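I have been asked to look over a protein record a colleague put together. Alongside the sequence sits a line of tokens, each denoting a local backbone shape. Please read both lines and tell me whether the tokens look consistent with the sequence. I do not need a full report, just your reasoning and any doubts. I have pasted the whole thing underneath without changing anything.
>
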Amino acid sequence: MIDWTEGRKMVKVSVIVPVYNAEQYLEKCLNSICSQTLKEIEIICVNDGSTDGSLQMLHEFAERDRRIKIVSQSNQYAGVARNHGMEYATGKYLSFLDADDYFKHDMLEKMYQRAEKSRADIVICRYIEYNEQLKKVMPMDWAFIDSFFIDKEEFSGNSLKNAGVFQITRGWAWDKLFRTDFVNQCGYRFPDFRSSEDGFFVYMLLARANKIIYMDDILITHIMNELNSLSSTKEQNWINGFKMLLMIKEEMEKLDIYEMYKQSFLNEVVNFLVWYLDSMHSFDAYGNCYQYIRTEMELAANVLSYGKEYYFKGDLYDRYQKIIMLPLDEFLFIEKERYWNSEAGKNCVIERQKKIIEEKKWFFPFNSIEKGKIIEEGSQSSLIKKRGKFYKLLSIQKNKKC
């Protein structure tokens, strides 16, 4: 048992862990924190109304390590849990970790030393992603991120190329170390969303930091594709991703820094919205997101008014433009190959086809197929004209003509 007798004055880093029904991963997560080479830490575990054995496991760990503090609340989701944990934090720096992820053993020491050496507001490290379903580490390509740096050693958001604060990292908190006084000075807390709760807190702190350090060290393993994890509830609460982006834009406008970061932010809007749409597995969530992007987000952000040359990834801009310009049925028809090659997309297309058949709503993508064009056998969206109407068929004979 570690004797934490020196009290709060020695705490260098407060690690805050929201815990909700995480017993499958919690032991590995907590072991990765308790075994850190930096010993002067406190571990604040916020039990977010767990109904499994997570709370009991927390108490068992706390008996062995006095640095662990347990805070309990009713289920209010990860953002509120992190805020609750910050109320008890006494460390000079703040670190956040989801209960299904884990640190490398020297993560906190390396990041703390870099922060202290440079007196940084934020330190960012690199990470690997482990796909829980495929049971393998996913390759990471850092070339795009690296292209925005002039100097990684010390920088602020506005010193990056294109003020690219939204491109150098993702909007999650677990790969970053935050100076506590800086966070409190800015006054930001996590929104009480069930998903997409990190983005506002992280990006606004990055936009306001005077000194940020980026480390090339890979110090965290992030678990992907676990349906019960903190990061996989966005589909049930699809509106939250949009709320997060609009909150960031509103706050930057309030602080009069929007023009400085506008190009970076709008590029993130395109990147996030295309990814967000692709990540929706059910057609209801997919359809809701599709319509919201067209009717609300484009109106708020005016992405298309700047032209393709304004954006860092032209292919994403092209897809976003199709979302805005095309009805959902035509968009899915055009994108059929992309969606059919992904499990989420395939489920969405199949669900949509069932709805069309059940509701007897037949459609033809006039903007996509020239008049008189022959549809070959085996088309994913086979159509045939009969008595002036177009019908969708499960199969089609060869060389039927529209």
Summary: Residues 1-8, 228-232, 377-402 have pLDDT under 50 and may be disordered.
